Amino acid sequence: MFLSLHNNINHLKQLTMKKLMFLFIAVLFIACSKEDKPIVIGSKAEGGIVFYIDEDLGYGFVISEQVVGKARWSPRYGLVEDVYNTFIGDGEINTQNIVNYYGTDTYAAKICYDLVLNGYNDWYLPASIEYGMANYNLGDKMPRLGSEAISNRLWTSNNRQHMGDTRAQTYKAYEPLAGTWDVDKLTELEFMAVRKFKLK
Hints:
Blueprint: H1 2-33, E1 44-45, E2 48-54, E3 59-63, E4 69-71, H2 90-102, H3 108-114, H4 128-138, E5 153-155, E6 167-172, E7 179-184, E8 189-191, E9 194-198
Helix pairs in contact: 2-3
């Protein structure tokens, strides 16, 4: 009887050790599988598709995987100052300046400014160069457009001074004749959104 009890205790110990070992291996496997994969151009991460990485500044930029709206550039005519900036990241300050100028209404910059997408709420209307860089770097991975696919014109956050107070800049996303075009601000066009994120 004593021997049988002893054998049962040893058997239980062996089972417990096996279970613990199995649990340890399972936890280790899960931890390894959740390791952060390196973020590269074209990665789906941080709420969108990565199209630019600036390792010197420690930031990356993603563009939304689809158009996020269709609206006028502005609710009314007016020349917004300080939205001439066309470098990577400038869409953020451009968007802020447009919203400061026009306030509450429904227009492209405000929609991006208020956008909550894939868990992030710091999106902005891209500057023309940001569309261009996404188009160049992503190639076939550049998100396709929606109902404006024939013209492929997207609102940018740029309003150059020579355009006066009635026109703003669009970006034509695909060949032929990819590039920027001036369009009446009260025209309803589609647009995408961009956000920047800090590299880990």
